[in-house]
Amino acid sequence: QVQLKESGPGLVQPSRTLSLTCTVSGFSLTSYGVSWVRQPPGKGLEWIAAIWSGGSTDYNSALKSRLSISRDTSKSQVLLKMNSLQTEDTAMYFCARWGTTEPYYYVMDAWGQGASVTVSS
Amino acid sequence: IQLTQSPSLLSASVGDRVTLSCKGSQNINNYLAWYQQKLGEAPKLLIYNTNSLQTGIPSRFSGSGSGTDYTLTISSLQPEDVATYFCYQYNNGYTFGSGTKLEIK
Predict the structure, then answer these.
(1) Which tens digit of pLDDT belongs to each residue from A64-84?
(2) How does residue A43 score in pLDDT terms, banded at 50, 70 and 90?
(3) Number of CB pairs < 8 Å for A and B?
(4) Contacts of A106 in chain B (CB under 8 A)
(5) Which of A8, A25, A97, B51 has a 20 to 30 Å separation from A114 between CA atoms?
């Protein structure tokens, strides 16, 4: 059974760095990628970053300078870091399985329940 | 590529045929998916590559379209279909539409 679970600090002070972890089970990070998507309260979805099954990375161009995505395959974990947080980064952060082969190329077919992040002093 | 979804809010009766629209600012080349998000839940993949039904999704859901214009159709609306629906393009970058909130009349 494919599962993804996000974990993070919940509350982060402005200007600080956010670290989120996505722990996966039921599939291998060397066979599938993982992407991150966020959703501000009451708003739509924004794709943030992805790490491919081979380890290469891809970032939202508007956020790229603030982001880092990495993985630990031995722990089945993907780590997202975002620096210089502002109040507008307050959102639910989801990780999702990222298809790296046809027909699911670039499609997110399984999602975690999300980690709520509030940026506030 | 920017995606424009319409309408933003749709109210329909149980059993109705419902059509949701997603229009791209450029050609999407059929690299279009649809997600359903119920209140307080994560998005769920319904349709990928314009018209491929994800495993386990009821056959009342279908997708169509080409170029810049795409549609999600629910052939017979059920109470459990109340949700917000997002389109997602992956032809050039990765972007979501702003969503259509579907409610029962």
Answers:
(1) 999 999 999 999 999 999 999
(2) very high
(3) 53
(4) 31, 90, 94
(5) B51
